[in-house]
Design a protein that fits this description.
By secondary structure, the chain is an alpha+beta fold. The chain has a single domain (about 5-120), classed as Trna Endonuclease, Chain: A, domain 1, CATH 3.40.1350.10. The chain contains two helices and five strands; from the N terminus they run αβββαββ. A five-stranded mixed sheet has the order 1-2-3-4-5, sandwiched between helices. The chain starts with a helix and ends with a strand.
Length: about 130
């Protein structure tokens, strides 16, 4: 698993995204949160808001255009993340309650050598 380049790339992006969220005042509650049907990249909270965050990492020269990381979060992926969030919440007994929910997206663009090109955090992305 550690030798899979896609997983390695995703892990780098998720590490950068988690650090970004923590620097922005979020508490990262869980990473790679497993549910019955899949995995949520990051579950975080700030103030009264619980945030389910989808992270997309790409090797690219820019973050925009049709091949940028945000382009990979289409209608099917948004629906899947909502389902996963519902499952996560259903199993959330004993966790603090947050009155507001939000779905964010973080796009991480890296060079081929693994250097950060850009990290864009889109709050309330879907």
């Amino acid at each position: 698993m550690a030798s899979d380049p896609r997983r390695r790339l995703g892990a780098i992006g998720e590490d950068l995204a988690a650090r970004h969220l923590e620097c922005a005042g979020y508490e990262v509650l869980e990473r790679n949160a497993r549910t019955r049907t899949g995995e949520i990249d990051i579950v975080a909270a700030r103030a009264q808001v619980l945030v389910f965050c989808e992270v997309k990492t790409r090797v690219t020269r820019s973050t925009g255009g049709p091949t940028g990381p945000f382009a990979a979060i289409g209608p099917r992926k948004r629906q899947q993340v909502r389902l996963l969030a519902r499952e996560w919440l259903a199993g959330a007994s004993g966790r603090p309650h947050y009155p507001d929910l939000r779905f964010d997206a973080i796009a991480v663009a890296l060079t081929a050598s693994g250097e950060l090109v850009a990290l864009d955090h889109l709050e309330d992305a879907f």
